[in-house]
Design a protein that fits this description.
The chain is α/β, with parallel strands linked by helices. The protein contains twelve helices and twelve strands.
C-alpha cells in the first residue's frame, strides 16, 4: 500500500509540479489578478493562465476563484501557497548554506523586531558581528508593533528570526523561543526633571504631570493602559500622543515630559545620560526578550552566528529564568 502511494505521488504530482508554476501562483495571489501577475513576471497572460490550469489539473482542485476585483485564493490555494513558501525558503536557505560554506565571512541575515529593539539592542549585535564579519548583510524589518504582522513575516519566511517579547500571537507551539534577558517597562523622564531626585513615587502622584504616551489603540499603548488600570487609575491625559519612541524620547530630554519605555532602551547602545528611570514600581511585569524561530526551519549559518552574538551581548542583562 505504501509503495502504491509513493508511485502515485511520483507519477501524478512529484514529477509534474513545477517550481515555475508555484512561482506564478504566488505572483497571482500577490497581484490579485492574472493580468497584473503577467506584467510583473514579464510573461504573457496565456502563460499565466495555462500554468494555473496545469497546476489545478495536477492537484485535482480549484486554486483560484474569480471575484469583481480579480481573483483570490481558494482554501486549497491558500494551503498550497503556505507550503510553497516553505519550499522556496528551503531552496533559498540551501543556496545561502552553499555560499556560507564557500565563504564563511559573508552571507545575509534577516531580523524582524520592534523599532525600540532595532534602535538599541539589535544595533549593538550588528555592530559587534560586523566587526568580525564585515561582508555579512543585515536586513532589519520593523513592521510597526502589530504582533500578527511580525508573525506573518516569520511564517512567510521574509525574516530568519524575530527578536521580540513572546506574546501569545507570536510564540506558540509552532515556534521556538530562546530567552535572552528580562527587561521591564519603566516610567522615565529627562535627567533635569525634579522628579528624578525623588526616592520613591507612585503612578497616582504623577497623574497631573505632562505625559507623552503611545496611542492607546496600538500594541504598546494597550499595555500602558493596562498598567494604569492595574493601579486603579485611568490613563492620564496625554499632552502628546505619539507611537514613535524617538519623538517621545526627545520630549523627555527637555525635562518636562514623562513616558513609559522599555528599560533596555535606556541601556543600549549606551546609557542615555539625558533620560532617567523614575523610582516608580509598575504593577505589571512585562514578558522577557528573546529570539523566536520556526520549529521546522533550521536557521542559516549566518542566522546562527547572529543568534550566538545576541546571547553574548545579552549576558550583562541576562538573569536565570524563573
Amino acid at each position: 500500500m505504501l509503495r502504491e502511494k509513493l508511485v502515485r505521488w511520483n507519477d501524478r504530482i512529484g514529477r509534474r509540479i513545477k517550481l515555475s508554476d508555484l512561482h506564478i501562483l504566488l505572483a497571482v495571489a500577490q497581484s490579485g489578478s492574472m493580468a497584473k501577475a503577467a506584467i510583473k513576471l514579464a510573461v504573457s497572460h496565456p502563460v499565466v493562465s495555462r500554468s494555473i490550469s496545469d497546476l489545478e489539473h495536477t492537484l485535482g482542485v480549484q486554486l483560484l476563484e474569480r471575484n469583481p476585483r480579480g481573483v483570490e485564493l481558494t482554501e486549497f490555494g491558500k494551503a498550497m501557497l503556505n507550503r510553497s513558501h516553505a519550499a522556496f525558503d528551503e531552496l533559498r536557505q540551501g543556496v545561502k548554506d552553499i555560499e556560507f560554506l564557500s565563504d564563511p565571512t559573508s552571507g545575509e541575515v534577516r531580523i524582524g523586531t520592534t523599532p525600540p529593539l532595532a534602535a538599541s539592542f539589535v544595533s549593538v549585535i550588528i555592530d559587534r558581528l560586523s566587526r568580525s564579519y564585515p561582508r555579512i548583510v543585515f536586513q532589519v524589518l520593523t513592521e510597526g508593533e502589530s504582533h500578527q504582522t511580525q508573525r506573518a513575516a516569520l511564517n512567510e519566511r521574509r525574516v530568519d528570526l524575530l527578536m521580540v517579547r513572546p506574546w501569545p500571537d507570536i510564540a506558540d507551539s509552532q515556534t521556538s523561543f530562546e530567552f535572552l534577558f528580562d527587561s521591564p517597562y519603566v516610567v522615565a523622564a529627562g535627567s533635569n526633571n525634579p522628579l528624578v531626585r525623588r526616592r520613591r513615587l507612585t503612578l497616582a502622584q504623577l497623574m497631573d504631570e505632562p505625559w507623552a504616551l503611545p496611542a492607546p489603540d496600538r500594541a504598546f499603548g494597550t499595555f500602558v493602559v493596562e498598567v494604569f488600570r492595574a493601579s486603579g487609575l485611568d490613563l492620564p491625559h496625554a499632552t502628546v500622543v505619539a507611537t514613535d519612541l524617538e519623538m517621545r524620547a526627545n520630549l523627555m530630554r527637555t525635562g518636562r515630559y514623562l513616558s513609559v519605555v522599555p528599560q533596555f532602551w535606556l541601556q543600549y547602545p549606551e546609557r542615555d545620560l539625558l533620560v532617567r528611570k523614575l523610582p516608580v514600581e509598575l504593577p505589571i511585569t512585562a514578558a522577557p526578550i528573546g529570539i523566536v524561530t520556526l520549529k521546522n526551519r533550521r536557521p542559516s549559518p549566518v542566522a546562527q552566528l547572529f543568534m550566538q552574538c545576541a546571547h553574548e551581548v545579552a549576558k550583562p542583562l541576562a538573569k536565570k529564568k524563573p
